[in-house]
Write a structure and sequence with these properties.
Radius of gyration: 39 Å
Strand content: 35-45%
Largest sheet: 9 strands, antiparallel
Helix content: under 10%
Length: 703
Amino acid sequence: MVAVCATALLASLTGSAHAVDNLPPKQPLVADLQSGSKPCATGDDTVYVPEPPRLSAVLYDPEEDNRPGEGNPLSGEFEAWWTDADGTVQRRSHTTIPLPSGLRQSWTMPSEIPANTTVSWHIRANDGHDTSPWSDEGAGAVCSFIYDNTNPEKPTISSPEYPTQDEAFWVDGVGVYGHFTIDSPSDDVVSYTYGFLGGPYGTATADRPGAAVTIPYLPVTSGPKNLTVRAIDRSGHSSTQARYDFNVKSGRAAVARWKLDDPAGSRTAAAETGTTARAGMGATFGGPASSGMTTATTVALDGSGHGFLTPDSPATDIHETFAVSAWVRPAETDRTMTVASQDADGRPGFTLGLRAPDSGPAWSFAIGGARLSGGSPETGEWAHLLGLYDAETGKAHLYVNGHEVGEGVAATPAEAAGAFQIGRARGTTGYRDRWHGDVSDVRVHDRVVVPNEVSELAWRKPDLLGHWSLSSATDGASPEQSDGTPLKLDGGASIYRDADASCSPDLDPDCPYVPPPLVGDGHLTLDGESGYATTEEPVVDTGDSFTVGVVVRLSDSEPAHPMTVLSQAGQHTDAFKLRYDPPTYSWQLVMPERDEAGAPEKVVSQITGADGGEGPGNRLAVVYDDATDTIKLYLNGYTNAAATASLPDGWQSSGAFQIGRGKVGDGWGEYLHGAVDEVQAYAGALRDTDVLSLGWETNPCAC
């Protein structure tokens, strides 16, 4: 009995102590309160919501109020109020079910709350014994929101540069910025979502509710365009879509252009547009241009004080957007030289040319204290340079051989109202950094030259050197389509033709099947032992950009050894070799770095199984781009990273063009067992889209 009484007394005392020692819940923190998904705010920062919001808060009970393993559940007591149209204060309240400390508790406001009225609210926590202070007591704050139940009105769109189709049908133009002003009659619009046909897409934020916004837009292609816009108000409501249609013309021509293809002995350079440029005595016209360039001849500047050309007037306002470009071939690369500049006060306003710092030569464009450098100038090698200053973005850009070098840098052009110069730059005591080498086709644009235009300016159109359809042979030689150098057939090489059949396998089951040629009426068949075809001289200059395409089908499903389909040799090794490598199940392009036996090689590959004498074969293409120092191997019109590599310096081979064999040691080997068709060779690097057209009898590259 004593033990029972003692136990009861202890339990009574323990329960009483817990009740007496209970601590009230913590005051809800303003940082833990939300009106919908938006943080608590009031006054000028009152939030707008598109529907009656879900109010929420995180409630806490003091940790010391709980024994180990225990926790006092908490209820949230919400209270909201507003003033109605009659001036009467309306109040609504809600108590949540008890939940453990630290959890978010919520109340979805009833649909009866009025629109466009400030609704305020607060909350406190209740642990069943005590309540916390209200969330707006002391250092706390009231939360407020406004329920907005209307969408903003559709915005209007206007542009001074690009009026609508109804106002002007075609307007400038690719590379010319337009500015589109967007405005909604609704005074609560805070942003606009927009999208131009083909991009860009984005969101423009107004400086204040109801303010208009202006979006810059740079057309990079010509043709019909449109801009679609929706207005977004403070609550997140969206307007209906507004659409603005306009038409963009092609990019306007250069404001100044000197092709520099004037006759030998000329003392001036004719201007296709702009002002004729006088030439110093160190300028010599009539030099040869590179294959595929836009001019047949060029001017050579001797690097002396007399080696220059100038129109004696500015070519452009360099405070506005402009671009300057030229084809150049340096005669040396160990000193700084200028291709083009424009005079300022004792200095150039900009320079485009070559720099020779201790780290090595690089192409360069400098303007307004900013300089971009990159690329690898090589003596005697042509390159295309373009420097661009974009006044809209305030950034300068440099392109070498059609590719941008690095990223644009901020620039602030200096005053430069002086004359445009070709081949020199203004210094404090005269001209300096004179160009030694060839220059061709100098252009100045008063707009942005967009990337696809830069690529086009820098592209040297490939020249077709030979196209062998391999459909016939006369006296052991297969003709070139344009009466060029024929291919001599030797050893186990012959032309296979689809003979006129006297029966039809479709009608006569005993009629033997005669497989058709790979392409057209015939193809070259090689026996894999001694058969090959060759020209008497080299076909492609392997020291410069070139492209070779071929259609080939292997006769074996598991070739016993590597087999070469195309090659062109130097004295000690092949300058390039296109071969099938059975162990790796791949076609390989092999290009040694030097004309030496055992020289390091660049090898790229495309994986594919051997044909086994069946099917249409594979269309292969080899491309060496000397301007970008890259080699590529294409399989059926496509390349990839594994089929691309860097080759900084190609070398010119002296050997004949070979089909069906390659150099092996001191002799020939890797004879091909299979069929070959549609061999095409070009001076210049074909683009990806052009390679797709290789391998067809009547459709050589139309590049």
